[in-house]
Amino acid sequence: MKFKIIYINLYEGCKEKNKFLKVINFIKKERPDILGLSELNQWDKNNFSKLNKFKKQTDLNHSIFCKASSGYNLGLFSKYKLTDRVIISKNFKTGMIKARISIKNKKLSIILTHLHSIGEDLRLKEIDIIKNYVNKKEKVIFMGDLNSLSSKDNYNEPRLLKAMKKIKSNKFGERILRKEAIDKITKLGFIDSVRKFSKSFEYSVPTKYNKDQNHFGRLRLDYIFITKNLFKKLSKAKIIRTKETNQLSDHFPVVAEINL
Asked: Measured between alpha carbons, how far is 125 from 127 in angstroms, rounded to an integer?
């Protein structure tokens, strides 16, 4: 069977009703088995009314919600029961969710996070927390907006540094582009799923809906990683850049499919 994973950063929780409905329609069409969402701002209001409406309309009946002190909450949604739940928000700007699912006696672990948006050192500290929950014997899918650049992506370094200086940002470094966060994740045994299928430059921001000054150029900030024991089963992975997804959020969705 094909097992589909989608991750989307929803801009501040889809405050606009029409955006929320567009996201629901996109998910209904794509029919993921597992969905990771970040920036679920205020989805816990009124006894989780928005979250429950989303679950009902997408048939993703199982979920885990991580309430962030920053308000940029996380949500993991699944067609299958989520067990062995770990929810951490302490020492994160947002947080981390880990859970396990079982399908036909096959177990998969899922990790969802949204790393710090300010600087690489803060992201590295968050990865140090996450690595305590990575078991190399498990089959793991690790996804999220990692707010980090990959050394596998060919960036015009002088141009990006100049663009950051212009807006007084050091999100990706000052004198050089810093890429240690993604390197640290790969050293934990994770493989960048999108890179299996594309050697071209890929980007997940900006979209036409962009509201973030830090999305000053084409950047890949959103990832789905898998452990090496899933690599041969990976049948598809890409950033979904279409006319439809250009209007959903300020990030494009990422999708991966695994043959189980």
From this structure: 5
What number is the average pLDDT over the span 87-111? Answer: 97
Query: Judging by beta carbons within 10 Å of its beta carbon (0-12, 13-18, 19+), is residue 35 exposed, middle or buried?
Result: buried
* The two three-digit tokens of residue 229, written as one number: 């024991």
Eight-class DSSP state of 213: T
Q: Which residue has the tokens 């024991």?
A: 229
CA–CA gap between residue 117 and residue 220 (Å, rounded): 14
Domains of the chain in start order, with CATH, are: 2-259 (3.60.10.10)
- What is the reported pTM? 0.97
Q: Calculate mean pLDDT across residues 45-68.
A: 98
* pLDDT of 214 strictly over 90: no
Rounded distance between C-alpha atoms, residue 195 and residue 200, angstroms? 9
> Look-up: residue for tokens 């699944």?
78
DSSP state of 159: H
Integer CA distances (angstroms), 11 to 62, 145, 198, 209, in order = 22, 12, 26, 9
| Alpha-helix runs per DSSP H in 59-156 | 120-130
